[in-house]
Amino acid sequence: MYTQERTTMSNLVVGGPVAVNSYDNAIVAALLENRPVMLVHAFNGGYLRPAELKEESHDKGVKLATALDPATKEAQGHLWYITPAGYFGQRPLYFIESAAGQVSPAPAGAGDVDAGRGDDGAPKPQRRRITVHQEAPKSTADTVQVGLPDKVGDKWRGKNGAPEDTQLWVVTVTPWGGITFVPITHPDAILGFKDHAVTADSEARLTYNWGGDFTGTVINTFYPRLPSEWNVPYHHVFT
Description:
Structural class: mainly beta
Mean pLDDT: 75
Low-confidence stretches: 1-19, 213-218, 232-239
Shape: globular
Oligomer: single chain
Radius of gyration: 17 Å
Order of helices and strands: EEHEEEHEEEEEEEEE
């Protein structure tokens, strides 16, 4: 991460103090090109996936899976978009959106407001986002859900009622090539796991950021993996 690569990417800084060089293809693709990636945990190789893959589910959480089963792969439950969402001061903010259960919006009517279009001119699909509970991380109860902004419950809305407030994350690139997620509503917390345990089927939670090394159970770092890297042996997810 500290080599001086003579490329246009060598001086890119994404959400933190660490320069992203040309070899961090997955991070660059996830944050700049908005390409879907797997979020693979640095500790045990498990990947984040919504607990419920169906598009009509908006009140279920996120878990860590260690086997990429055909149903999850077919539904794209292993893929996430880290979507740009403005700035907090000078730091870019992002939504963490699931590729599972995304909905292609109906064409806008004559007097309707268009929700936005991609570079190809097609309407942007609606994707369920990881949403943080107002009172997280005070308890080990559900503190994150995956749902559309207008479908989340009252406690998953910001204090002023705007659901977007609880769906915005600061993404920090780590010196070892991973990424961490800090919600703007709880800046002393980090995306972690219930009881701080990084095990198969651990339920994702918002947990206090108490420090520790990146393979520990408090600092939870993920390595983005591009679809082209699926066949690369990485712990036991791909074997």
